[in-house]
Amino acid sequence: MRNQPKYNFFKNTSYAINGLIDIIKSENSFRIELAFGIILFPLILFLDVSITQKLLLFSSYMGILVAEAINSAIERIVDLVTLEYHEMAKRAKDTGSAIVFLSILIATVTWLAILYEKANFALFS
Hints:
By secondary structure, the protein is mainly α.
């Protein structure tokens, strides 16, 4: 039997918010990536691109934050199990880092492709 209370939307939402607050307080890389949102969100709003492209820009940025949260969870679980060096612990943490790297790569390619397309249309209009 699982050690889990009955589902409650408001209680579960508070768990999610607590997790988000904890990541913001304790993870420097998450704070740095969140700070990029201060620049990117207004840019998304004011770029003259389609709503679909705006959603792609937003989603690709949010993917970085999701990946960083997953990476933080992996690192915490590994540290809970052992603080000593272990090859499998290193591999788990490296995999978490790879998730973040790939999400940044996806976001970068998405942003560059949309901005490049926008610039080309502006040049030939």
